[in-house]
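Notes continue from the previous slide.

Worked example: a multi-chain complex. Inputs as given:
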Amino acid sequence: MRYLPLTNEDRAEMRDVIGISNINQLFANVPETVSLDPNFNIPTHKTEMEVERVLSKIADKNINSNKVPFFLGAGAYKHHIPATVDHMIQRSEFLTSYTPYQPEISQGTLQYLFEFQTQVSLITGMDVSNASMYDGSTSTAEAVSMAKRITKRNKVILSPTLHPQYAEVINTLISSDEDYVDYEFSEKFDISSLISKIDEGVSCVVIQNPDFFGSCHSLDQLAEYIHSKGALLIVVINEVISLGMMKSPGSMGADIVACEGQSLGNPLNFGGPFIGLMSTKNKYVRQLPGRIVGETNDVNGEKGFVLTLATREQHIRREKATSNICTNSGLCSLAFTIHLCLLGEKGFKKLSKLNHEAAIKFYKKFDDMEGFEVKNKSFFNEFTVALPIDASTFVEKMAKRGVLAGVPVSRLSNQGDNFSNLLLVASSEINSDSDREDFIKLAKEICYE
Amino acid sequence: MNKNKGLDHDEKLLFEVGDINRTGVDLDDPENLTHMLGDSFCDSEIGLAGLSEPETVRHYVRLSRKNYSIDAGLYPLGSCTMKHNPRLNEKMARLEGFSQIHPLQPISSCQGALELIDLISVWLKELTGMAAVTMTPKAGAQGELCGMMAIKQALSDKGESHRKIVLVPDSAHGTNPATAAFLGFEVRTIKSNNMGLIDFDDFKENINENFAGVMITNPNTCGLFESDIVRISDLTHKSGGYLYCDGANFNAVVGKLKPGDLGIDAMHINLHKTFSTPHGGGGPGSGPVVFSKRLEKFCPTPLVRNYKGEYSLIENLNDKELVNSFGRLNVFHGQMGMFVRAMSYMLSHGADGLRQVSEDAVLNANYLRVSLSNHLTPAFEGYCMHEILFSDDFLKETGVETLDFAKAMIDEGYHPMTIYFPLVVHGALLVEPTETESKQSLDHFILTLRDLVDRLKGDSDSFKAAPVFTPIRRLDETQAARKPILRWKEEPLVAV
């Protein structure tokens, strides 16, 4: 077996040193009622070439987004990733190292995480960030937990335009008897109705921006009201590229920001691994979950970095920890930070603009499309279209004819009929004029054939 | 001032070497269309530093060289299973048919993705001898949460939500009690006996009418197989509770026995440990959970179903198959990129190779145990499984502490073992070599550790000073926590 260095001679020699004749003597603690070496109904080992054949055959059964006009978003976005990113993250020293618990031989990881924390703080307009979470949805649920700890209140108000699966995650994780989560999925974002729900029992209000349907919101006034009631504003961002031309959550008064960071550096990967971002105000830093890197000095006074504020974490606090989280999304955060380093301020803003303009061009195509209605008054790179036919049927038919057209809202809403003809369509720098024309031409044929 | 030291370059922060005018990406020029952002438009400076491509490459290559890695040397972190990460796995995960697909593509356009999830599910169920598996947890800790939520849901389903007590051995990972507490369970610690195993009598005494279940790592973090595990599971079930198994140490028994035969109800599997998906400097991980028949129906959404080769995804919580589900742990369907890597590893090994994996892992650990037992102090008598736990007895009266010993290993070219964990042993040193170390590599490690121990007498200063051959010396962690500096900020200009 190519991954196992011991030869049979090595094994025999080592058994002699240990003083056993049979390897099973080392498994002596296994109770007698449990069989050692049972039959496993799986094949035996394969060569590298055979494995490639098996997996390539499976991969080929998927329609891959590189090959077709592609308009899906809803929390996972396709962008062009510079070749440098994937090359750098495959450096052995990044790929095959552990969590940087020994800082003297982990400064590479620690320094890029410190830089990552700075970038995340800057784009979200917040004071501090942690070293990443699993994904945007768990980041959001952790933000809600954090708000509960800070305010010591149990009522949570979710905007009706929050990603339905994010709401499901919150509902699943914030589920003790004292908790109350208010969520009614709808395309109507109405500040006054949100305000009417906020009282002194509310710990936080969770707003996605741009929202699930793609609309953009200015939250300054809402933030002011939320704060007047002693509650916190959590802003959720699904598409971080939007932060290149939109007001940052911090500038609008957010207390905690939770983002899906996949758009930078990370391919779609059928939904994972992704990378959750989380940032907050200085005063709440000791309530942040997850790993955090801080700057310090070594015995010679040289600047260096360490994991810090570990007294919040499970390996020290055990049942009193702020969260049970242990892992972050290390390598995904490296991809994120390299991509953003390559872009820089100029590239990030330009990319943001290109995404917005791709969406505007697509939006204009619907002007003279009879029976199609764009629902948004504002959007960044994603908007909602009401179709003349059922959206699920539409995307299946479009896919069969070579266009991955968008995400039917009903797939996520869990309440089919109300949203059956709504389709979410995302655009990005990858979309060409001919992609858009293919979509429009085929859409007309499919809806009116 | 030049602070470079040979191959080790002093590398400033991105924000010190880069600036807001530089970029390493060529993009088309926007057309300056009128924006449609409503009152959300903003054009103020963010402050992001950029670098050109060659500068970017140099920045990250220089940073990378400040890291230890499994590719460069033995990485004996106990309970972390730092084994070789085959590059074939990386190649497979990058097949466009896996990496360039969207989680919400029409089901007909992602049959291969669902087939892959189904395939790895079948393998994990077979290897563990369990009835069901959920692939969605994103890491081991989320897997634990998943397993314990299923248990909570099962109790509530039986109208037994008063069962609040979860027993956790004192040798457990910190995530175990943190998970149970997060879910509102009351955590009670049970003692280890002088053999490093769960004290069965203490376990028994802690069971009462409010007993919900027990979380056990097996093999445990002392590197020992819990010989009473079947008695424990029998008593747990008889008492109306559930047995959660932390599968962090699955590498010791994979392909050798079926954990389902031990009577467990749920177990997470760290794909980034047992199945070689890279640790990546701290993630991403993946923590699928296998379930017994008793817990199967409480699985989180989504589920993949295979009907005669046609795959479907059950993701709507109103679906009849999900009526008892405890809900959703995260958006979409889990860590596909990690599933592909783990599948590539499992296919490569097959049933025969995986059995050899656990046998070699256990053989390597015992070889270290025997070869080091005159120099370090094994915490417990007898054979170990895939990792060996030492106490700091051998350091007594040397003035050297476990931390110093670990730092001295760094100067010898090794990443230290896990230290000060588990908590049941004073100054613990937990060594897990894994099966991907050769005998030569182990022999070199043994000689190095013996030399270090021999040096303890009379040369304690060098241990206190270590490491010295590193890019940076020992860091002041107290200062870092007391006055947290968690991001770069432009230094205020000093008035002249």
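Summary box: The CA atoms of residues 205 and 338 of chain B lie 42 Å apart. The first helix of chain B runs from residue 14 to 17.
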